[in-house]
Here is the input.
Amino acid sequence: MEDKEIDKKIFVKKFENKSNLTIFDVGTYDGKDSLEFNKLFPKANIYSFEADKRSIKVFNKVTGDNKNITLIETALSNLDGEIDWYASDSETRRHYEFEESWSASSSIKKPDNHLNIFTDVSFMKKSKVKSTRLDSWIKDSNINEIDIMWVDVNGGEKEFIEGALDTLKNKVNYLYIEFNGVEDRTLYEDCLTAEEIKNKLECFEELGIYNFMGNFGNILLKNKNRR
Here is the structure.
């Protein structure tokens, strides 16, 4: 595994004959990934998913009135309704002067080794947020193809995949997803390794590992049955 950043421009080459992409940014936090995709693909329709009300406030300030980006205020997991939520905070990691607290590590999963590795990050008492299965959400949309699925759900990868299996297999071309388990270490309780993610998504092939820090990383996958 290599510790390297992914350059989103990799997708420009892959979609050189298509401009009106559909992109999902799941766990968007401040919306910067959505904005970067919008800059690369000005005609793309971008759907940004976020459940933490604090992140939503930051997202709205950072993205402004961008008509290509649609915010959906929900977590994506394996259930429709409400789900447990562990809200993060850190006095040292706040990026914006208007940011009341730091929500970027919030998760549906209880923190595990995260507490030992990132000692400046704390988690509040468990609460509830809205949750939706992506497979349920997609049925009420007119979306037939998702070119890029960009997923940062802080340990909730298992639940996300379970609630999105049909969509991932049949509609998604490229999936970029974080993993928070490495060997016997997990940042959040019961979260997946990169290999476990690939085992759950056998119709996808690995294109690369990025941002690998020894305890977590991101994996880029391509749907072998599409494009």
